[in-house]
Design goal:
alpha/beta; pyruvate-formate lyase- activating enzyme; two-stranded antiparallel ribbon; 23 strands
Length: about 725
């Protein structure tokens, strides 16, 4: 079982706590002087505008460090073309903390087709182009130029998902760990409150950052590895087949090396393989050596193997450290952070946030803030394990819950202090709407489990799925004075929801604003098995409940399903079957999004390697087809928008090639008509494009499938 972590707020506070909390963390020297500061202990550099709200990573980390007694400044969306903005607050006494922001900077800036986005929800006015590509690397370089010798700590989702050698969709190649490219001193992955607090206190006592190597949830680079550890070659644990050995960086290859009459004293750790491994190894002093950067760069099978090992070593209860060589340097990745306990998470969310953007932005609207200002985050983490989504890799599979009292207090705080509040809470949720207080029935089983998902291929027998505590929370939230309505906007895990019918009744009766978004992602078993998503049987069961309880409540309400185009494992026939399902059920997609391979996701491994890392990797293991060509990706998106006249020529051509010309015609049974409207996107006068029957035209929008989309900011990195 996991050993309990020290209380996050149990450290002796740094001396600067005497200044008290700042109204806003300062972004200028003038604000620092008004607070009586001569310098900052820590400066956070972020690609987002500074919003002092617990849905924004820089605010959470900044306020947590402030509560420890440190003086924290913010440099938000600096001009990266020079060092001037990075010198704005002077040098920090302890370190620069660098993050790309609540979203990965590449996902934020480019579409799934690698086209430049024109907007940025985390920028005043939604203006695009206010952060550089690969912001963590660029910001770190500028910080180093501004103040040489000041330690650099990188974190947030951009750093978190690039902690090992990773496939980069935008360059179509495997890149090194971001630690190497950013030349940072240490990387923090996941929700990093525990690591950042301990690091800050240790640096404040004079400890050198290059000697701090024992923090969970951190990665760092070393020239040599400690001799008191046992390294296990990961390819002997999960054997991918013949492997070209990586050169031993500790081997003396000079010509004047003395002949070894006796074995020399080892200068590195003991390295063992499957067949020679000693029994009863100390797991806390055992690390797995995954294939080196140079190996995974050249060999897609080894890339898939390394990805599988990393995901299997993600449970903080049993994960081992990982080591990956990059040339003559070693990237060492410690086990994931221990989840925050409920009292700790409550305190994180109850710090003195102003809950509004910094006054420097004036009246400018920040779209991401506008979306979440009346919503409440009730939990962290996700045990769904969807292969295309990066929430689990970042926040972990163990659900971290806030208490009911803390959530209700935040609702009252919104009611009493948030400008523009009209009585409607826009969301009570998180990464998912209905995982609050769901957990493994036995902590011992939880700490030893190595499953990639608690709900795929079916719901684990050890998972508590009782959602009645959430029902009671909803009822208490609705009963608060001044609260007219509480909506649920976070994505719903409907295969879990049906396990508690009373939850579905409560949700449908009181918390749906006409439409409820859910994510089947596909209808066909081929792509669903690669997504780690349930079959349509769960959807049908939920829909029956949804319709039943909507009717009982006297409400006309609709389900809005999300679907993914061009996901690994998807064939043209799969997309045709999905299009026929959409037409039969009266759905017309408003906008669609093709799969975007984000760093470290299992689906990205399938995309790059052509192998299935959900199963044991070998040279002859299951191969996965991915629709990569531009024309095929366009076709898969066109199937989702079968009703758009602009897509009909492409669909007709594809249907004819697939031997399904019977679906071309002007009747109800046809998918696309035989005629083509005159003009771009137009249709002949009096002609009627085929579509759903009257009253069933539920327009829907498919989700951004890179798994990093921050619904209301709550998926934001720390």
């Amino acid at each position: 079982m996991m050993q309990p972590a020290p209380d996050l707020f149990g450290y002796r506070r740094h001396w600067a706590h005497k200044f008290g909390p700042a109204p806003f963390l300062p972004m200028s020297r003038e604000e620092m002087e008004a607070l009586g500061w001569d310098s900052c202990d820590i400066i956070i550099v972020t690609g987002d505008a500074y919003v002092d709200h617990p849905s924004f990573g820089m605010a959470v980390i900044g306020r947590v460090l402030e509560a420890q007694g440190f003086r924290v400044g913010i440099i938000a969306q600096p001009d990266w073309n020079s060092v001037d903005d990075f010198m704005r607050l002077g040098p920090p006494r302890l370190y620069f903390g660098v993050t790309g922001g609540n979203m990965d900077s590449m996902v934020n800036r480019y579409t799934s087709e690698r086209r430049l986005r024109s907007d940025d929800a985390y920028t005043p006015g939604g203006e695009g182009g206010r952060r550089p590509d690969r912001a963590v690397i660029v910001y770190s370089q500028r910080c180093r130029e501004a103040f040489k010798g000041v330690p650099i700590v990188i974190g947030g989702i951009e750093a978190s998902l690039r902690r090992i050698a990773h496939f980069d969709y935008w360059q179509e190649k495997v890149r090194r760990s971001v630690l190497i490219d950013a030349k940072a001193d240490i990387l923090m992955f996941g929700n990093a409150e525990r690591a950042i607090v301990e690091l800050s206190h240790r640096l404040a006592t004079g400890e050198s950052i290059d000697r701090i190597d024992d923090l969970r949830g951190t990665a760092f680079v070393r020239r040599a590895l400690p001799a008191d550890w046992t390294l296990i070659d990961s390819t002997t644990v999960d054997q991918p087949g013949e492997v070209q050995p990586h050169p031993d960086p500790y081997l003396d290859t000079t010509n004047n090396a003395a002949p070894a009459a006796a074995p020399p004293t080892p200068v590195g750790p003991q390295v063992v393989t499957l067949h020679q491994r000693p029994k009863n190894l100390d797991r806390s002093r055992t690390a797995l050596r995954i294939p080196a950067f140079e190996q995974v760069r050249e060999d897609p099978v080894l890339y898939a193997h390394a990805s599988r090992v990393l995901h299997l070593e993600s449970n903080p209860g049993n994960a081992r450290a990982l080591v990956q060589a990059h040339g003559d340097r070693e990237v060492w990745i410690n086990p994931p952070p221990l989840p925050l306990r409920t009292p700790e998470l409550d305190k994180v969310f109850e710090l003195p946030y102003q809950r509004v953007p910094h006054p420097a932005y004036g009246d400018a609207k920040i779209p991401a803030y506008e979306m979440i200002r009346f919503s409440v985050n009730i939990m962290r983490g996700c045990f769904g394990g969807c292969s295309f989504c990066s929430i689990t890799e970042h926040e972990g599979r163990i659900i971290q819950n806030r208490s009911e009292h803390s959530i209700l207090r935040e609702i009252e705080n919104i009611r009493d202090h948030t400008p523009g509040f009209t009585g409607v809470i826009s969301d009570l949720g998180g990464p998912t709407a209905n995982m609050w207080r769901l957990h493994c029935k036995d902590p011992r089983i939880e700490s030893s489990c190595r499953r990639l998902s608690c709900v795929y291929p079916g719901i684990c027998d050890n998972l508590n799925t009782d959602q009645m505590p959430l029902v009671r929370l909803y009822r208490k939230a609705r009963e608060l004075p001044g609260i007219k309505r509480v909506l649920i906007a976070s994505g719903l895990r409907y295969d879990i929801a049906v396990e508690t019918p009373e939850y579905v009744r409560e949700l449908v009766t009181h918390h749906v604003g006409g439409y409820l978004k859910i994510a089947p992602e596909h209808t066909e078993q081929g792509p669903l098995s690669k997504m780690m998503k349930p079959g349509m049987g769960s959807y049908d069961r939920f829909k029956a409940m949804f319709d039943k309880y909507s009717k009982q409540a006297g409400k006309e309400q609709y389900l809005i399903p999300y679907f993914i185009a061009a996901h690994p494992g998807t064939t043209d026939q799969d997309m045709l079957n999905l299009a026929l399902w959409l037409k039969a059920n009266g759905f017309r997609a408003d906008q669609v999004q093709a799969f975007l391979p984000s760093p470290m996701a299992m689906a990205t491994t399938m995309w790059h390697s052509g192998r299935n890392p959900l199963k044991k990797i070998a040279r002859n293991s299951e191969q996965v087809f991915s629709p990569k060509g531009r024309r095929q990706r366009r076709l898969h998106k066109a199937f989702l928008r079968y009703h758009d006249p602009n897509n009909w020529p492409l669909l007709r051509e594809a249907l004819q090639a697939m031997g399904r010309s019977d679906l071309i015609g002007n009747g109800k049974r046809h998918l696309v008509p035989s005629f083509q409207p005159t003009g771009t996107g137009g249709r002949p006068e009096g002609a009627r494009t085929p579509g759903p029957r009257s009253g069933r035209n539920a327009t829907f929008r498919t989700q951004h499938t890179h798994g990093l989309k921050n619904r209301g900011g709550r998926r934001g990195p720390r």
